[in-house]
Amino acid sequence: MTTRMPALTATAKFLGALLGSLVLILVIWSLFLLAFPDIGPIIGRTPIDVFSYLFTGADASTQRSDILGDLWITLGDTAIGFVTGMLAAVVVAAVFVMFRPAAQTFMPLAMLLRSVPLVAMTPLITMIVGRGPACIAVMGGIIVFFPALVMIMTGLNNAPRQISDVITAYGGTRLTTMRMAALPSAVPALFAAAKISVPGAIIGATVAEWLGTNKGLGASLQQALPAAAYDELWASVVVITVSSIVLYAIVGVIEKIVLARMGTEPT
């Protein structure tokens, strides 16, 4: 009971803030179209237009089915990129923290690689790994990896020095110190990295589909734009955005529950 109530309170506040953000997005969207009437009605679509396209229009059932089918593909691609990027970030961050010279040598190279636009690297990536799941893993993983690496390294470096000294005094190795002291103290940073990485993973999946695999919502966006299928275009963007918010919310709720059970005060 002592851990359940703070977790429930923190979760309710988190979801309430997220819902408020979603409402704000809808308001800004509507005001933007009102402020720039030249965008519509040929190109611009209001929230009501998108709702009609997906739920109340004459062909809404078919259109919704097509977009949801593409969404499942994109969510699968998102999972591939997210898991790949997060696992790589955890492993590399642990190596960099245990071996400082490695971080000093390779961190600037990693940041330099991150500065190269993903679009510019896409032809090279597809040429090396093809257009299948490996392409999705690489492109999605690149977007997830770099911000997660920085945040996880910060969390690992914040391990209590006293605990690390005790483990070392009793003959513990660097790996033992990492497992028993650094990783538990880095759990909040892991969740923070995961929350940031979920929207990035969706972006990576969409870009990979747009430029690489020709499947999912990324491919739908690519095909809808030159075809002037603006209803489908806006609906796909809305579905991607809502999916990002929902996945972010799921990670956030899990974070509140886990941190409350660990005795860390949820915020």
From TrEMBL:
Compartments (UniProt record): Cell membrane
PANTHER family on file: ABC TRANSPORTER PERMEASE PROTEIN MJ0413-RELATED, ALKANE SULFONATE ABC TRANSPORTER-RELATED, MEMBRANE SUBUNIT
Organism of this sequence: Williamsia phyllosphaerae
Membrane topology: Multi-pass membrane protein
Membrane-spanning residues: 12-36, 79-99, 111-130, 136-156, 189-213, 233-254
Keywords: Cell membrane, Membrane, Transmembrane, Transmembrane helix, Transport
Keyword set includes Transit peptide: no
Protein name: ABC transmembrane type-1 domain-containing protein
